[in-house]
């Protein structure tokens, strides 16, 4: 079943590092780029004024900041018989005020004719993710690089691609909408527990085997559960909005904000629990002994402890046969939380679904003796030198089995 392509949403993109002069506030509050050949490849030769544009700042730990604006692309010497002088203008806004020298500037033209301007800190995780998504060079220079989104540079909107698009506020349409709606029909307008949702996701994919391919199974199950959740969420949110938030003269602003926040919080908490549910199923399929969410010391509760709490608390049990696994669907800087969760275990493991984590982060993880575990499908989003250090789910299971952390 075709899940869509990146070219369904974007025509082309340019990227560059910002120079000092490009981040200096203009006296007229208007920013300008010279119309390079790369920009002409993106916008063409015709003047285009007041192009609707969405400006997005994606920092390290902050949530995305979004501002609506516009761009103007035109030839200042349009009437000259032989000369051209293309320029790209946009007005100062909350996002442009955050830009610093060295930040990475992405400018994409969307299929509907609008544009998207994305600013990321230099060498950040989100920068790596966007470079991978659009098939761009690893290290943007201070000159624009252009990429047309088609052919060999197009990307199928699989789990990893949609993960990154979600950061941009883009939610691709589901081609299996009818199938998904049939599966969630029994829930009406009420969310079931995450465990029930996880079981439904797995049962709806009977061809997927955790025993044969745990990496593929984990991604498939998480992907399906995300689809199911978003379809049900859409129904519930639509129903709540249709009921309104007060009258025109007495709008319930607090009620609306509270409801919006609850939607976001539910998404975050559910994603983490779903990942743990599917990992638990994989451990059972491979006969791995584990304890989920039990205390170690100082009220710490690692997501998974191997082989269990009894062995961990037994001073006579060899420390080299103890393992822990943190489980976080997204990381940002939260990976440090797992470092203190099991004092007896020197070398810790952390599983995530986040693509393209920055080298600075993974280098620090290695220094802190924290091994990153990712489903095999996500490994290509990392740089080659990082990939040599990563392990996948199958490899992690092999480590546990080699240390006899199983039920035999």
UniProtKB/TrEMBL annotation:
One of its GO terms (biological process) is DNA restriction-modification system. GO terms for molecular function: DNA binding; type II site-specific deoxyribonuclease activity. Residues 229-396 form the Restriction endonuclease type II EcoRII C-terminal domain. It comes from the Bacteria. This is Restriction endonuclease type II EcoRII C-terminal domain-containing protein.
């Amino acid at each position: 079943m075709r899940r869509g392509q990146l070219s369904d949403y974007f025509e082309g993109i340019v990227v560059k590092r910002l120079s000092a002069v490009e981040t200096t506030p203009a006296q007229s509050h208007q920013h300008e780029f010279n119309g390079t050949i790369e920009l002409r490849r993106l916008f063409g030769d015709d003047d285009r004024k007041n192009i609707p544009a969405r400006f997005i700042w994606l920092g390290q730990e902050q949530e995305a900041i979004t501002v609506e604006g516009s761009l103007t692309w035109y030839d200042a010497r349009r009437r000259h018989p032989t000369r051209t002088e293309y320029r790209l203008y946009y007005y100062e806004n909350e996002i442009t005020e955050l830009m610093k020298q060295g930040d990475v500037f992405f400018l994409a033209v969307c299929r509907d004719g609008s544009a998207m301007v994305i600013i990321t800190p230099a060498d950040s995780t989100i920068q790596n993710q966007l470079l991978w998504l659009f098939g761009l060079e690893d290290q943007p220079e201070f000159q624009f690089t252009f990429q047309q989104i088609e052919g060999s540079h197009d990307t199928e909107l699989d789990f990893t691609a949609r993960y990154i698009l979600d950061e941009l506020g883009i939610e691709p349409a589901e081609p299996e909408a009818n199938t998904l709606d049939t599966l969630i029909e029994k829930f009406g307008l009420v969310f079931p527990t995450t465990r029930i949702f996880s079981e439904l996701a797995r049962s709806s994919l009977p061809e997927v085997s955790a025993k044969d391919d745990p990496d593929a199974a984990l991604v498939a199950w998480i992907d399906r559960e995300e689809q199911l959740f978003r379809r049900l969420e859409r129904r519930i949110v639509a129903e709540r909005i249709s009921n309104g938030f007060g009258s025109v003269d007495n709008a319930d602003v607090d009620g609306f904000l509270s409801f919006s926040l609850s939607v976001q919080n539910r998404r975050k908490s559910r994603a983490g629990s779903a990942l743990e549910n599917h990992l638990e199923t994989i451990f059972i399929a491979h006969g791995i002994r584990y304890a989920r969410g039990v205390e170690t010391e100082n009220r710490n509760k690692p997501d998974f402890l191997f082989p269990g709490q009894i062995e961990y608390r037994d001073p006579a049990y060899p420390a080299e046969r103890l393992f822990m696994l943190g489980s976080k669907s997204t990381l940002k800087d939260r990976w440090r939380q797992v470092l203190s969760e099991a004092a007896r275990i020197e070398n810790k493991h952390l599983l995530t679904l986040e693509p393209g984590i920055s080298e600075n982060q993974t280098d620090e993880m290695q220094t802190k003796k924290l091994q990153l575990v990712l489903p095999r499908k996500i490994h290509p989003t990392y740089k080659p030198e990082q990939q040599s250090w990563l392990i996948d789910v199958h490899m992690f299971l092999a480590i546990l089995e080699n240390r006899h952390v199983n039920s035999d």
